[in-house]
Amino acid sequence: MKILLILKKKLKKFNSDKLREECGIFGISNHEDSSALVALGLHALQHRGQEGCGIVSFDGKNYHSEKRQGLVGDHFTDTEILKKLPGNFAIGHNRYSTTGETSLRNIQPFFADLHTGGLSIAHNGNLTNALLLRQSLVKDGAIFRTTSDTETIVQLIAKSKRKKFIDKLIDTLFQIQGGYSLVLMTNKKLVGVRDPFGIRPLVIGKLKNSFIFASETCALDIVGAKFVREVENGEIIIIENEKLISVKPFPKQKQRPCVFEYIYFARPDSLINNKCAYEYRKNLGIELARETDVKADLVVPVPDSGVPAALGYSDHSKKKFELGLIRNHYVGRTFIEPTQNIRSLGVKLKLSSTKTIVKNKIIILIDDSLVRGTICHKIVKMLYESGAKEVHVRIACPEIKYPDFYGVDMPNKKELLAHEKNNKEMCDHINAKSLKFLSLKGLYKALVGQERNDNFPQFSDHYFTGDYPIKLTDNLEDLKVKQLSLLSSKSSS
Description:
alpha+beta, 24 strands, six-stranded antiparallel beta sheet, disordered C terminus, Glutamine Phosphoribosylpyrophosphate, subunit 1, domain 1
């Protein structure tokens, strides 16, 4: 058992050296198989959150909820569970926690009984003023059951003095700050919301007479739905009586979507601005080759996220592309307990080298990003142990120097390798022959074909620039959620 726990800890550490998006959300109206389709949609969005999943359905009279810790496929493939979720309306959520602890009570969608009727909500993103709002609500008598910032939204809706639900929602949206996408379900409506800057993604799909909200288009594809359009920044979409109504309560401003949706978060086959994420990532590799080419035998990606950029790099540089690293896709929550000493396993839980391919070769190692550098160091070491002559690391985005506050699980400044070290120090840290990053100029050329507009940036690119579209109101050490420390809740079987 002790060995198993160590293995799990090592796997978590491996995963932690990648940026993690908070959640995936999905909602559907007017379909007899609504819960099953939500489960399929969440399965397609599994990459956006693996800690927990939940579905809430509405049968015209009652709401039904099922929540589980772990993966969608471990729970919502069971027909008996889906039978507990009747109704023609349903919303679902995959969780990767950035605020709030990992526990059953923090798994969404949330449900509340308001005087206007039932309300269920699924949230992707992070509020930058949630703790201050929570503090104020608690002083006014609000009782919180979770440590999630999503519950703050529910409390504000409940507290609003407006009569109509949509007016209550608008009232709430003008109080919250941050990057967010919301899917809400009431007795009569399915509602989708995107923050005023459009930082977090949300798309609209159509399946016969049913409308769908989803974090990415890949979730529409899996259920056979047609992609309609993206929800615009600052837009509220209301689905009622099989009709779509658009409301735009915020002052108009330019959209600034999260640049990491293009670089890493979105599934490669998902459409972003009418182009597959794969194409953007390949373009990043092309620009990287233009800026940082070096004499080498092979271009090797860090799988799987580095593959498109490596293909682009290989195409432009005319250097041979090879899978010098192989990822084990079947490392999950359980392992066969090994008997040998496991101290040296580390990255080998997920990656192994193709030794005969990399032996005696000068390698260009391509990855999408460099965060802490701990895993990159181990990968470089693995390639050298497999006989590589030289390893030159190339990163398909600029140096990550600043943390995120809008729904990305990112270390603080001190844990970011590029914030603490210069290029030589970083190169020495990962033990590479050389280390180069894509320039900010190259990033924008690859993604939009033009330079960054410094007055109105095309993306939320604060990771590289420190240019935050929304300030962090909660950046105070003493403002932490301290309730619920004595309460534990466990997942049902």
